[in-house]
Fold this protein.
Amino acid sequence: MQRVAHIVGAGISGLSAAVRLANANFKVHLYEATQQAGGRCRSYFDSATNLTIDNGNHLLLSGNYHALAYAKSIGTDAGLVGPERAQFPFVDLTTGKRWQLDLGDSRLPLWVFDASRRVPDTTLRDYLALMPLIWSSPQRLVGDAIPCNGLLYQRLVQPLLLAALNVDPPEGSAGLAGAVVRETLLAGGQACRPLIAREGLSAVLVEPAIKLLQDRGSDIRFGHELRSLGHATDHVRELNFGEENVSLTPADAVVLAVPPRPAASLLPGLKTPTKFRAIVNAHFRCEPREDMPPILGVIGGVVEWLFTFPQRLSVTISNGDRLVDMPREELAQAFWRDICQAANVKDEMPAWQIVRERRATFEATPQQNALRPGSRTSFKNLFLAGDWTDTGLPATIEGSVRSGHRAADLILRQA
Ligand SMILES: Cc1cc2nc3c(=O)[nH]c(=O)nc-3n(C[C@H](O)[C@H](O)[C@H](O)COP(=O)(O)OP(=O)(O)OC[C@H]3O[C@@H](n4cnc5c(N)ncnc54)[C@H](O)[C@@H]3O)c2cc1C
């Protein structure tokens, strides 16, 4: 008999669980509170720029193996594009200095031995000082594990960890930072090639998953917000969507792939992260020069990363709580000034849009990391997924997919 799985939440974690289970011949029911799938990783049409934009620029790396496997499973791995080699150009706006970090294409971090490929004016000793991060405990602070000053910190460690953890690096969890470093910088250039969904997040990571699920006969309901769970002692037996109740048998599996706040209200007593940080993105409609790199690291400005897309330049600022209440016009002007300097542009500010995601990620500090639950719950047929569950990584697409795959695998093992 065909087994049944109910997936609640159509973000990347819910979609990756749904796809894995549908491919294993489960009858999948997917419920999403809003009218659109993708959650914090989605595209939409923006009338200010007259373009389809993403809620935020999302960077994947070639070492994000679960994310790439997910893209492959929905047939869109070719839609994640980037340069041939793991090269990261940077500009420092305070000095005008430009350089390129060249991580090569090895499986080992051989680039640290080559002065022409590593960060300018750094020595091998600077890189060795990062070693304590590699196997740090999650309870330790980055600031207690490694030196958070000097040129290597300013030019590489700070931008990398700020983007990965979405907190000021010294206050971040050294264990989470160590996992990022192990899976990227330490794994050599092969794991660090930057990959971007050039045609948009929804076109590459979301809509093809919905299409695959529909083709497999899944039942997909938008505008379905789970309000409560009915349960017996050891299993969930009802999903309550307000107007509609769905009854389950003990053999039916449920994946709760919603953010921490709704998860905590649906499952009283569940420990979840309680603090979040913002990410701010801005999109400027223009025709980027052909020699613009897909991604440019910016030091010494408000802007931290500059992304080049067809018909637009987009910027990202992590740990952006200080920017969420600032006047939008003022922010746009500040971003455009940085872009002009970083990209050698002299044009008037074009049409723009600013997207401020207030609760972009949980705070990747030791305290908040300690509140992340695993996939299993006290109910035998209920599993958790989401970037905020205990994936061992900060809140990333890679973590979301891992959590979705893990929830699906636990269900498959029960089969
Ligand atoms: C601006 C920004 C930039 C980012 N940049 C990067 C990056 O460069 N690289 C990277 O790897 N990651 C990045 N991330 C993180 C990445 O987007 C997330 O880790 C990932 O999208 C989280 O997916 P999720 O499925 O875990 O959660 P969510 O995307 O939050 O999905 C949860 C879904 O559940 C739905 N839901 C909520 N409550 C209910 C309910 N009661 N019933 C039914 N449905 C419900 C929500 O509507 C949502 O669709 C970024 C995030 C943001 C916001």
